[in-house]
Amino acid sequence: MPDEQSSNTPERQQDTGYDSSEDWTAKWSNVFRLATGRMTDEGSLQWKKDRDDRNEEADCAKCEKNRDYLLQYSPIVRFMREKINKLGGDLHSENIHCRRCDLPQSGGFEKDYGILLCANHLRNQGHTEDTMAHEMIHAYDHLRFQVQWEDNLRHAACAEIRASTLSGECRWTREFWTKNQWKFTQQLQECVRRRATLSVAGRPYCKDDVQAAKVVNEVWESCFPDTRPFDEVYR
Description:
By secondary structure, the protein is mainly α. 58% of the residues lie in helices and 7% in strands. The chain has helices at residues 2-7, 24-35, 41-73, 75-86, 125-145, 153-166, 172-179, 187-201, 209-223, and strands at 12-13, 18-19, 96-99, 107-110, 114-118. A hairpin with a 4-residue loop joins strand 1 and strand 2 (18-19). Helix 3 (41-73) crosses helix 4 and helix 4 (75-86) runs parallel beside helix 5 (125-145). The longest helix has 33 residues, at 41-73. It is globular, with a radius of gyration of 21 Å.
């Protein structure tokens, strides 16, 4: 009898610290355990997955609202869209897709698909704007420089350096509030190197983060100063 009773009770996974119950006390307990380090990595992943399951529809609706607003009113998004149009491309609400993502990323670009915005990982409109700008710079580079995304790490590294530099995602204020970066000197360069290395290391044909850092360093001098299509770093 005790075994049957426990199997019908909402699961509290003592080994991970995650409580899968749906009542409000369990939800607040999960937040508290996560904030105080009493939830394991496995428990944290399960908590995030369940949260994303519950919020998927609302997250995508919010993402689409922000996307449409930014396409109409964001200076950097409108500028990049104009430059892409001049190269024969066209980005709009039909090929900038808001979807739930299981991988820890904010977005992505695929030459035959368009732009992906990870609705469950975008914090607010500003984060959405940075992500759209980043991926639109990838789209511009694809059309302007014929980037070989599939098998050329140097091309990928250069594209990531340029996108992180020009999109605004490495500006000091964002690094300060989201990454607790306090440096005033070389902050932009360090952020760009970090983000580019992480992105290159995640590609299937990159062996490890050591190779990624090496490739980023090899193309740094030519790619970091390249601000096309801007006259200078915009944000």
